[in-house]
UniProtKB/TrEMBL annotation:
This is HTH cro/C1-type domain-containing protein. SMART domains: HTH_XRE. Keywords: Coiled coil. GO terms for molecular function: DNA binding. Residues 76-110 form a coiled coil. InterPro entries: Cro/C1-type_HTH, Lambda_DNA-bd_dom_sf. Residues 7-61 form the HTH cro/C1-type domain.
Length: 111
């Protein structure tokens, strides 16, 4: 279920009133009012439109990530493949650093 606070936050972030949001998600303004009051839920089509048209991150929209008042967009997130590349580079650098420390320790023992 999508929290009303998240809908309100995305409306604020995009400077949308009830009628404008209704037009975007192809619902009536009265349906949007009922969603905002918590009496009804968005249709799955409306949720899909929010994600696609406004670029809203689905994990944020459904409350799995982020604060309700801070809208998260798909473009804000680093791609998983990029994260994996960076993590691999960090592991590689840690291994190299470990080898340098071993060499330094060996050199000190020899002296």
């Amino acid at each position: 279920m999508i929290e009303v606070a998240r809908i309100a936050a995305l409306m604020k972030a995009h400077h949308l009133n009830t009628s404008e949001l209704a037009e975007i998600v192809r619902l009536s303004p009265s349906k949007i009012s009922k969603v905002l009051s918590g009496d009804q839920k968005f249709t799955s089509d409306a949720v899909g439109i929010l994600i696609k048209e406004l670029g809203i991150h689905p994990n944020w929209l459904f409350g799995y990530e982020g604060k309700p008042e801070s809208v998260m967009y798909l473009n804000d997130l680093v791609q998983r493949s990029e994260v994996e590349k960076l993590e691999a580079k960090i592991r590689e650098l840690k291994d190299e650093l470990g080898e340098v420390y071993k060499q330094l320790a060996e050199e000190r023992r020899v002296k």
